[in-house]
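Batch job 17 of 40 flagged for manual review because the log was empty.
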Amino acid sequence: MLAEDRRAYILKLLENRSSVTVTELSTAFGLSEVSVRKLLSCMEQEGLIKRTWGGAVSAYGSLQEFSHKEKEPVRLAEKISIARAAYDCIADGDAVFIDCGTTTIHLARLIRTGKKRNLMVATTGLNIAMELAEAEDISVIVIGGELRHRILSCTGTFAENMLRTMFFDKGFISGNHLTLEHGFTTPSVQEAKLKRMIMDNCKEHYVTIDYTKFGDDSLSLVAPIAELDAVVTDWRAPADVLAGLQEQGVRVIQGAEEPQPA
């Protein structure tokens, strides 16, 4: 494999994952780890990636936040598996908060069509509210505020004031990144504050996050690992990170890989 092919391979991996390791690249390329580190160093100097201890992450900064339209069509199988695992955590009669997001929209669809009823769902996500608008037997509370157009979510003082007096059995919180070192993070300071408030107001909270979001940090801390109840993820999530979460007392729930049609 030529050097340019190796660069392209690494960048392609980082389109779908938060990070790559020196060890896995060494195996993939048949190179020594010293040679891989030199390659990553060159790519960092060219502005293509950012090096980390033991590997590399995307060159996108901690403020990077993709829009709803950009995120919606990618990793559908993983998002659906997470949504199904999350739905299994809900019981009849629960008061549930569902965060905005392209994973949680699949959870809203399961709630709309599923057998569990006598539910009350609150959300800051316009896409979530519209999905549940068709289910007249499910109570829906829309948390209003300043609209963040790119992610279809309401934040700010109005949203915070509404949430201060509301308490939920379960909350399903979306986010951008999670690392064992720094915890659960998101690019927006306002979003981080609101997500933290929601977590505090839930008897149980579940972070819904796919495999690509492990191993890097966004700008704003939502909560350190020690303060998380549970993480719901897909079958492709890194085993070492999941083990680290469990060692710190976090419940890990993995969605199953769905068989592909023949």
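Reviewer: the log was empty due to a logging misconfiguration, but the result itself is present. The chain is about 35% helix and 25% strand. Unflagging and moving on to job 18.
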